[in-house]
Every structure is written in C-alpha cells, then in structure tokens.
Design a protein that fits this description.
Strand content: 25-35%
Largest sheet: 11 strands, mixed
Radius of gyration: 19 Å
Number of strands: 14
C-alpha cells in the first residue's frame, strides 16, 4: 500500500469513527476563527477540514499524552505502513468477497448511505449536507494496523453520481461502466458501513438493477452500542468473521459532491 493510499484510508477512518467526533467539531471551529472565509463558505470549510484534520489531531492528541483514551491516541498516531489484504470478510450478518472475474456468483456488490455536501442543481453554487446513496463493487479488503488493534476497510469501484444511478418504476438502476473519476482519490469505506447488494444486468445494456441482500442469521448476531467504537483483533490474514450490527448510522463521504434529486 503506497503512502498516498495509506493517508487517504487513515483520513477516512478518522472522519467516520465515533470516538473522534468531538474533535471534528473542535477543528472546524478553530478553522472558522482563524479565517472568516471558512465561516461564510461551508464548502471551503469542509475541504480545508478534510485536508488538515489528521495532522491537527496528531498534534492535539500526542501518543505520550497520559490522560487521553488509548484508543484515541493510537488513532491519532496513525497506522503502520504495512496493511493486510483479504479476499473475504463477514460482517453485519453478510459475507463479502472481492470481485472475481472468474466467478459467476458474486458477493461483491456494496451500497452505503452517506452524508455529503450537495448542490440542488448544476447552476446552484450553494451547498447543503444531505444523505446520498452510493453503489459499487468491492475491489479490495484492507486491514489497517493501528499497533494495538486493526480496522477493516473496503476499497470499492463506485458508480458515478448522479449520471451512473437512476430510478425507474420504483427500481434503482446502476451503470458501473460510467466514469468513476470522481472517486479515484477516495474509494474507501469502513467494512461496518457496507450494505450488500446484488446486480441484475439488463439485456444488451450497461445498466444493472439493484437488489438489496438480507443479512443471514440476523437473530444470532450480538448487538453493540452503535456509538461505541469497537476495534477488532484478527486471527489470521486470510478471512475474518466479525458479527457487528450497525443500524441507521449516517456516514460521510469526502471525495465528491452529490446532487439532490
């Protein structure tokens, strides 16, 4: 994993981990006070916040600061430069596998509902935060090693928003061949955020109908407080089982703008 990809993955972890939430608002408040333009322009504020937050947090919560939570300190310090790659992962009662061109049956369809900065139209330059649904294919499973715990992330190929997604007759259709350039610099999500979907291809078309997958053995899963951060201990580097149910959470995408429809 290159240093650039590691930085992008670590940044996504920090922006989407509940234990870090108080520091997110603290950092944005500091940016507003240092430059009035950030107080007036939410888009510029968000961009600067995303770019500078990891370095700011590392300075704010040094690893040798005794009174801070150990979990928070290791997150602020950052992961090791080596990451483990897996081909399969079970979470939220669903089994995910990376896309395999040789297999006809896939468990690689992924969906996530995430909060993003949106414009109501192409002509409207003002931005608002709204929840947008994203659809993609799982390309790689990565385990970031934070020295005392590991965090699984999915690297996905995402359908273009909004050109690659449309609603027809109550069905969601996705075009995975549309340009994905808007996600090149930020393809990651936490494994716990992923919802599994299957794609049924329309005949002689690049569009696929989205079908949501139901978790298997849902009643057997152990429930955790969704606001409590829970790292995992991995037994091996091939495949890991983690039964962790997370419901009704909203997550954040930082790589692109959405469009309200």
């Amino acid at each position: 994993m290159t240093d650039e990809w590691l930085e992008i993955a670590h940044r996504y972890v920090l922006l989407n981990t509940s234990i870090v939430e108080p520091f997110l608002e603290m950092h944005k408040d500091e940016l507003r006070k240092t430059n009035q333009i950030y107080a007036r322009n939410s888009g510029l504020l968000w961009k600067r916040h995303v770019e500078t937050f990891p370095k700011w947090l590392k300075e704010k919560v040094p690893i040798d600061k005794g009174e801070e939570n150990d979990l928070l300190k290791w997150l602020a310090y950052g992961p090791r430069k080596q990451a483990i790659s897996c081909t399969g992962f079970i979470i939220n009662g669903q089994r995910f596998n990376v896309e395999d061109d040789k297999k006809t049956t896939q468990n690689s369809g992924v969906s996530i509902d995430a909060t993003t900065m949106c414009r109501s139209s192409a002509k409207d330059q003002s931005q608002v935060a709204d929840v947008v649904s994203y659809y993609g294919v799982l390309k790689e499973i990565i385990l970031l090693d934070y020295h005392t715990f590991q965090i699984p992330l999915f690297r996905c190929l995402w359908a273009n928003v909004p050109n690659g997604i449309r609603i027809e007759d109550g069905l969601t259709l996705v075009n995975l061949e549309e340009s994905q350039s808007q996600f090149v610099k930020d393809p990651f999500i936490l494994a716990s955020q992923a919802k599994q979907v299957f794609y049924s291809r329309e005949r002689d078309s690049s569009w696929h109908v989205v079908m949501m997958a139901r978790p298997r053995g849902f009643y057997e899963l152990e429930y955790y407080d969704r606001h409590e951060y829970m790292p995992i201990i991995l037994e091996n580097n091939i495949e890991t089982r983690l039964d962790d149910v997370v419901e009704e959470d909203q997550y954040v995408r930082v790589d692109c703008e959405g469009t309200l429809v």
